[in-house]
Specification:
Elements lengths: L2 H40 L2 H34 L2 H35 L6 H30 L4 E4 L2 E4 L2 H5 L2 H35 L4 E2 L5 E2 L11 H39 L1 H7 L9 E7 L9 E7 L2 H7 L9 H12 L23 H28 L9 H9 L2 H16 L4 E3 L13 E2 L10 H32 L1 H4 L1 H9 L4 H4 L4 H5 L13 H8 L2
C-alpha cells in the first residue's frame, strides 16, 4: 500500500470518527436549550431534570468531539501539505472564522453555562446556552463553506498555479454550502431525536421491570414511586415519557427536513458532480431509471460487471430535474467527457512522484457510492419509522414490557448515526479522483481542481504514515472506550446521576428543586436567577455534576 492510500485511510478513519460526535453535539445542544427554555417558562420540575440529564450527555459528547476534532487540522500539515498549500488562500478565511469566532463563542458561553448554575440570573444562564448552540451551528456553517468549496470551487482566480480568493461573498454564499447546511442541521436533529427516544424507552422499561409503574385493566399506565431508588418518583416518569415523545416527534420532523434538503442537494450534485451521482446509481448508460437494487461487482469500476435487478423508470430524472423524461448521463458517457477535459493520465509533475503517468480513474468506487447513498436514505427512513411506531406504542403512557423491544429501541439510536456517516462517506469518496472537484458550470474556472494524488505530502513516507495511522487509531479507540463508558454510566444512572441533590433528597427528605435552582419569576426579577449567592449545601455537588 502506497503513501497516498495510507493517508486517505488515516484521514477517513479520523474524520468519520469525529463526525459521529458532531451531529449529536449540534442536535442535542439544541434540544437541551429548548428543554431549559420550557423549564424557565413553566417552572415544571421535569423540565429541569430533563435539562440536566440530557445536558450531562451533551457535555460528554462535546468534549470528546473537541478532542477528536483537533487532530483534523494537524493532518492538513502532516499528511496533506500539498493540499494545504493549494487551498490555503481560500480556506484561511472560513477556518479562521470557525476557530476564532464561532468556536471561541461556543466554548466560552458553554463554559458559562456549565459553571453558571446557581450563580447567574436564570435568563442570562439560559442565554449562554442558546449562544453556545448558535455558535456550534455557525461553526458548522464555516466548516461546510470550506468543504463545499472543495465540491464546487467559486470566487477565485488562478495565480501562479494556485487559487486565490477574489470574491469572499461568492465563497461564503456558495450554493453548495447553502444547501448542505440545512441538510446537515436536520440530520443532526434527527440523531438527537433518536437518542432521546432510545434512552427514554430504556428507562420507562426499567420502571416497568422494577414494578414502579404498572398498567390497569385498560392497558393505561399507573405511575408509581420507589421508596428505595433515588429519583424514581412520579416526576421521573414524566421526564422519560415526555423525552420519548419529544424525541419521536423531532426525529420525524427532522427526517422530513433531511428528505427535502437532500433532494435539493442531490439536484445540485447532478449539475456539479455528475460522475458522483452516476456512480451512486451504478448507472452505466444514459437513462431515467432509478436502481433500487443492482448486483455484480461495482467495486471493479467496470460497468459491465454491474446489472440492475430492480429499477423504477423516471425516478432518476425526477431526482435530477423534477421531470420523468430527461435522460441522465451514465458512466460510459461521462468518462470520455472527463478524459477530454482533464486528461487520461496524471501529469509528469514532481508532486505526483512515482504516480506520474498513471491512468486516471474517474469512476469512484461504486460499491461505496451506491450502497452509501442507499444506507443514508434507508437508515434515515428506519429511524423515522421507529419514531412513528414508538409514538403509537406509548399512547397509553408507558412502553411494552418486552425486553426485545427495549433492545430494539436502544439499537435504533444507531440508525440516524449510520445515515449521517454514510452520507458523509458518500459525499467525500464520490468526489474522487479529485480532492478539489472541478466546477463545470462557470467558464474559465475548470482549471481550478486538484487530483487527490497531488495532495499528499511528498516528504512523508509510507512507514511514517502507517505509524501515525496506528497511533491515531489506538488513541481514538481509547477515547471511544472512555466515551462509551461515560455515556453508559450516566445513562444507567438516570436523572439521579446528573442531579446529586436527588440522592440527598432520598435520605434527607424532599427538596424544592424549582426554588433552589431559581426558576421562579420572583428570583429572576430580583437578579439572583439560577441560584443567587445563597445556594444550598448541595451547590458544590451540582457544579461538579456538570464540570468534567
Amino acid at each position: 500500500m502506497e503513501a497516498l492510500d495510507i493517508a486517505r485511510w488515516q484521514f477517513g478513519i479520523t474524520t468519520v470518527y469525529h463526525f459521529l460526535m458532531v451531529p449529536l453535539t449540534i442536535g442535542l445542544g439544541l434540544l437541551v436549550a429548548l428543554l431549559q427554555t420550557l423549564w424557565q417558562r413553566s417552572g415544571k420540575e421535569e423540565y429541569l431534570r430533563m435539562t440536566k440529564f440530557w445536558g450531562k450527555l451533551f457535555l460528554i459528547n462535546f468534549i470528546m468531539g473537541v478532542a477528536t476534532g483537533l487532530v483534523q487540522e494537524f493532518q492538513f500539515g502532516m499528511a496533506w501539505s500539498e493540499y494545504s498549500r493549494f487551498v490555503g488562500d481560500v480556506f484561511g478565511a472560513p477556518l479562521a472564522m470557525e476557530s476564532l469566532l464561532a468556536f471561541f463563542i461556543e466554548s466560552t458561553f458553554l463554559g458559562l453555562w456549565i459553571f453558571g448554575w446557581k450563580k447567574l440570573p436564570a435568563r442570562i444562564h439560559l442565554a449562554c446556552l442558546w449562544i453556545a448552540v448558535l455558535g456550534s451551528a455557525v461553526s458548522a456553517y464555516f466548516i461546510l463553506v470550506a468543504n463545499s468549496w472543495m465540491q464546487h470551487p467559486v470566487g477565485v482566480e488562478m495565480v501562479d498555479g494556485r487559487p486565490r480568493m477574489v470574491d469572499a461573498w461568492a465563497v461564503f454564499t456558495n450554493n453548495t454550502a447553502l444547501v448542505a447546511f440545512p441538510h446537515t442541521l436536520t440530520g443532526a436533529v434527527a440523531v438527537a431525536g433518536g437518542f432521546l427516544l432510545g434512552i427514554s424507552w430504556y428507562h420507562l422499561w426499567r420502571r416497568r421491570r422494577d414494578g414502579v409503574d404498572t398498567i390497569d385493566a385498560d392497558g393505561r399506565v399507573v405511575v408509581g414511586e420507589s421508596a428505595t431508588i433515588p429519583g424514581r418518583d412520579r416526576t421521573d416518569h414524566a421526564v422519560w415519557i415526555r423525552s420519548l415523545r419529544i424525541g419521536a416527534v423531532v426525529a420525524m420532523i427532522a427526517f422530513a427536513g433531511t428528505a427535502i434538503t437532500g433532494d435539493m442537494q442531490g439536484k445540485l450534485m447532478f449539475e456539479q458532480q455528475p460522475m458522483k451521482m452516476a456512480a451512486a446509481e451504478a448507472a452505466c448508460h444514459d437513462g431515467t431509471s432509478f436502481s433500487i437494487l443492482s448486483i455484480g461487482d461495482p467495486g471493479s469500476k467496470n460497468c459491465s460487471d454491474v446489472t440492475a435487478v430492480i429499477e423504477v423508470p423516471g425516478i432518476l430524472s425526477f431526482l435530477a430535474h423534477n421531470d420523468f423524461t430527461t435522460d441522465i448521463k451514465g458512466v460510459n458517457t461521462l468518462v470520455p467527457e472527463y478524459q477530454a477535459k482533464y486528461g487520461t493520465t496524471l501529469p509528469a509533475n514532481p508532486i505526483y512522484g512515482d504516480r506520474a503517468g498513471q491512468e486516471i480513474q474517474y469512476v469512484p468506487v461504486m460499491a461505496v457510492t451506491y450502497w452509501g447513498f442507499r444506507i443514508m436514505i434507508g437508515f434515515g427512513g428506519l429511524a423515522a419509522l421507529a419514531a412513528l411506531v414508538a409514538l403509537v406504542l406509548v399512547r397509553k403512557g408507558t412502553v411494552p414490557s418486552s425486553r426485545w423491544l427495549m433492545r430494539l429501541a436502544l439499537f435504533s439510536i444507531l440508525a440516524p448515526f449510520g445515515a449521517n456517516a454514510a452520507g458523509w462517506i458518500f459525499t467525500e469518496m464520490g468526489r474522487q479522483p479529485f480532492v478539489v472537484a472541478p466546477n463545470p458550470q462557470l467558464s474559465g474556472i475548470d482549471q481550478v481542481f486538484m487530483f487527490t494524488a497531488a495532495a499528499v505530502s511528498p516528504g512523508v513516507s509510507a512507514g511514517e504514515l502507517i505509524f501515525s495511522l496506528v497511533m491515531l487509531a489506538s488513541v481514538y479507540a481509547v477515547l471511544l472506550v472512555v466515551e462509551v463508558r461515560l455515556l453508559f454510566r450516566y445513562v444507567r444512572g438516570g436523572v439521579a446521576a446528573a442531579m446529586p441533590e436527588l440522592a440527598h433528597a432520598a435520605k434527607e427528605g424532599p427538596v424544592n428543586l424549582r426554588k433552589s435552582d431559581g426558576a421562579s419569576k420572583s428570583d429572576d426579577d430580583e437578579g439572583s436567577g439560577a441560584g443567587g449567592s445563597g445556594g444550598s449545601p448541595g451547590d458544590s455537588d451540582d457544579v461538579l455534576a456538570f464540570a468534567y
